[in-house]
C-alpha cells in the first residue's frame, strides 16, 4: 500500500513540474531520483538501517559543532567564568585537578605528614575568623588566603621554639606566625623594615621579633645561626621553623638551611615548571620518573594540545611555547635556573637539573604541598591551573561546606595567590 501511494505522488510531481519546466527541471529531476532511490531501498529492505545510520551520523556531527562553538566562545573572552564552567562543567572542574600531573619530591624513607584532611578542615574553620582581623587587608605582592592558612596551620602543628622568616614585605607573614604562636620569638630578615611601610599605610611590626632589616639586613646565608640561636636561648635547631618568602633559588636556600642544621622549612612560592622568578623545589623535582613529570616539547603532542586549551581559561597556565626553550629545554624556566627575583639566572643542562633532584631527594624526609583551600567554582579564582595542582581541601560543588567554614565571607581576590606552598622536613640522620 505505502509503495503505491508514493508512486502516485511521483506522477503528481511530474504533472505539476511540467508547468515550470524551465527553472524547475533540476529540482524535478532530483526529486524523481530521490524517490526512485527510496523506492528501491524500501523494496530491498535497506531503508530503515540507512535511516538509522543517518541519524547517528547527524548526532555525532551536531556534538562536534557544539564543542567547537564552546572553544570559540571562550577564546573570545578568555578567563570568562561562564564559558569555563560550560566548557569543563562542574564535575569536570572537580576531576580536572592534577590532570596534567603534580610533581613532588620523593621522600627518602617514604615518610609523610601527620595531619589529615579532617585536621585541615578544622583548621580552616578556626582560621577564617582570625584572618578576618588581619591588619593588612590588601596584601598585593604578598600572601593571600591559601598560603596564610597553610603557614598558620603548619606553624601551629609543629609548635617551634623559634620562627625565622626571610622576606617580610609589610609584615603580613610575621603577623600570621604571631597568630599561630603568640609567645614564641620571631627573627625576620628583610631588606626594608616593615615599619617603613607604616608611614604609607597598613603594615605590621611585631614586638617579640628581632629584625635584621634596613641597615641591619643580613642575607639568610650569611647569618651566624649558632650565635643567633644561642642569643635566643635555643639549643636545638630541629626545633626551629624557617619560612622562606624571599624569591631566592630554593636549592641554594636548602643547602644553607642544611648547613645550619635546620630541618623544618616552608617555601611560599613553590613555582611550577616554566613559571616564576626562582628555581623552586617543585621545578627541581619535576623529572621524567615523577608522575606528570618531564615534558614533551613536541607541538602536536597531547600535552601541547591540552596546555594550549587550558591557557584560554587559567591566567597562569603554561602552554608549550612558554614551557620550552631552545633545544627543547623545559626544566626550570626554559632550561634556566632563576635566582633572586630573576635578577640572576643560569642555564643548566638536564643532567645538572637531574642531579639537583637526586640531591634534594637524598635529604628530604617529608615533602608536602599545601592543597588549594577550595575549588575554583567556589573561590572564583582564575589564576592557577587546577591541572597542575592536587585536590583542594574543599572540593568543587561543596558550597554548603565552603559557606559553613566562613570562606564565602572573604573577598574573591584573596584566593588568587596560590603557588603550591610547600613544607619540607630535612632528614638530619645519616648526614
Ligand atoms: C613577596 S615579598 C614577601 C611577602 C610577605 N612574606 C607577605 O606574606 O606579605 C618578598 C620580600 O622579600 C624581600 N627580599 C628581597 N631579597 C631578600 C633576601 N635576600 N632576603 C630576605 N628577603 C628578601 C623583599 O624585599 C620583599 O619584602
Give the N-terminus to C-terminus distance in angstroms: 95 Å
Q: How many beta-strand runs?
A: 9
Helix content: 40-55%
- Assess the beta-strand content as a share of residues: 5-15%
Helix and strand content put the structural class at alpha/beta
Spatial strand arrangement across the major sheet: 3-2-1-4-5-9-8
Alpha plus pi helix count? 16
**What is the averaged pLDDT score?**
84
Low-confidence stretches: 1-39, 60-79
Please tell me what the overall shape is. globular
Overall radius of gyration: 31 Å
Largest sheet: 7 strands, mixed
What is the succession of H and E elements? HHHHHHEHEHEHEHEHHHEEHEHHE
Name every ligand kind in the structure.
Answer: S-adenosylmethionine
Question: How many discrete domains?
Answer: 2
Summarize this entry quickly:
This protein is an alpha/beta fold and 431 residues long.
Describe this structure in words.
The chain crosses the membrane at residues 46-65. Residues 1-28 are annotated as: Disordered. The radius of gyration is 31 Å and the shape is globular. The protein has helices at residues 2-17, 21-44, 47-76, 81-96, 117-131, 145-158, 172-180, 194-198, 225-231, 250-260, 281-285, 302-311, 320-323, 350-363, 376-379, 399-404, and strands at 162-166, 186-190, 209-213, 240-244, 264-267, 336-339, 344-347, 364-369, 422-426. It starts with a helix and ends in a 5-residue tail after the last strand. Helices cover 44% and strands 10% of the residues. It is of the alpha/beta class and 431 residues long. It is built from 16 helices and nine strands. The protein has two domains: 2-86, no CATH class; 103-426, no CATH class. The strands form two sheets. It has a seven-stranded mixed β-sheet, sandwiched between helices. The chain has a two-stranded antiparallel ribbon with strand order 6-7. Bound molecules: S-adenosylmethionine (SAM).
Amino acid at each position: 500500500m505505502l509503495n503505491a501511494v508514493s508512486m502516485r505522488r511521483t506522477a503528481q510531481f511530474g504533472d505539476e513540474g511540467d508547468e515550470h519546466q524551465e527553472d524547475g527541471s533540476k529540482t524535478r529531476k532530483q526529486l524523481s531520483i530521490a524517490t526512485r532511490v527510496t523506492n528501491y531501498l524500501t523494496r530491498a529492505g535497506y531503508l530503515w538501517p540507512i535511516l538509522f545510520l543517518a541519524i547517528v551520523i547527524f548526532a555525532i556531527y551536531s556534538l562536534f559543532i557544539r564543542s567547537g562553538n564552546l572553544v570559540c566562545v571562550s577564546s573570545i573572552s578568555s578567563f570568562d567564568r561562564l564559558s569555563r564552567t560550560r566548557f569543563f562543567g562542574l564535575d569536570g572542574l572537580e576531576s580536572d585537578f592534577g590532570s596534567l600531573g603534580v610533581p613532588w619530591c620523593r621522600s627518602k624513607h617514604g615518610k609523610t605528614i601527620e595531619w589529615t584532611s579532617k585536621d585541615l578542615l578544622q583548621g580552616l574553620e578556626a582560621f577564617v575568623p582570625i584572618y578576618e582581623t588581619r591588619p593588612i587587608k590588601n596584601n598585593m605582592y604578598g600572601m593571600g588566603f591559601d598560603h596564610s592558612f597553610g603557614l598558620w596551620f603548619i606553624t601551629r602543628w609543629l609548635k617551634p621554639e623559634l620562627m625565622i622568616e626571610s622576606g617580610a614585605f609589610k609584615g603580613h607573614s610575621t603577623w600570621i606566625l604571631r597568630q599561630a604562636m603568640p609567645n614564641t620569638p620571631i627573627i625576620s630578615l628583610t631588606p626594608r623594615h616593615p615599619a617603613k611601610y607604616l608611614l604609607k599605610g597598613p603594615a605590621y611590626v611585631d614586638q617579640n621579633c628581632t629584625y635584621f632589616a634596613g641597615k641591619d639586613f643580613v642575607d639568610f646565608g650569611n647569618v651566624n645561626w649558632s650565635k643567633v640561636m644561642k642569643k635566643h636561648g635555643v639549643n636545638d635547631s630541629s626545633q626551629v621553623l624557617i619560612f622562606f618568602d624571599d624569591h631566592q633559588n630554593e636549592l641554594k636556600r636548602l643547602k644553607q638551611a642544611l648547613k645550619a642544621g635546620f630541618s623544618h622549612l616552608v617555601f611560599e612560592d613553590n613555582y611550577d615548571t616554566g613559571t616564576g622568578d626562582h628555581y623552586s623545589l617543585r621545578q627541581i623535582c619535576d623529572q621524567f620518573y615523577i608522575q606528570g613529570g618531564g615534558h614533551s616539547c613536541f607541538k602536536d603532542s597531547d600535552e601541547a594540545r591540552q596546555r594550549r586549551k587550558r591557557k584560554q581559561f587559567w591566567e597562569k597556565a603554561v602552554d608549550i611555547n612558554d614551557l620550552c626553550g631552545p633545544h627543547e629545554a623545559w626544566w626550570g624556566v626554559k632550561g634556566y635556573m632563576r635566582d633572586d627575583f630573576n635578577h640572576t639566572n643560569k642555564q643548566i643542562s638536564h643532567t645538572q637539573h637531574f642531579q639537583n633532584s637526586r640531591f634534594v631527594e637524598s635529604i628530604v624526609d617529608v615533602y608536602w604541598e599545601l592543597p588549594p583551600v577550595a575549588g575554583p567554582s567556589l573561590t572564583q579564582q582564575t589564576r592557577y591551573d587546577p591541572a597542575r595542582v592536587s585536590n583542594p581541601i574543599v572540593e568543587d560543588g561543596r558550597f554548603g561546606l565552603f559557606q559553613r567554614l566562613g570562606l564565602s565571607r572573604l573577598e574573591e581576590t584573596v584566593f588568587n595567590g596560590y603557588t603550591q606552598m610547600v613544607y619540607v622536613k630535612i632528614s638530619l640522620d645519616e648526614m
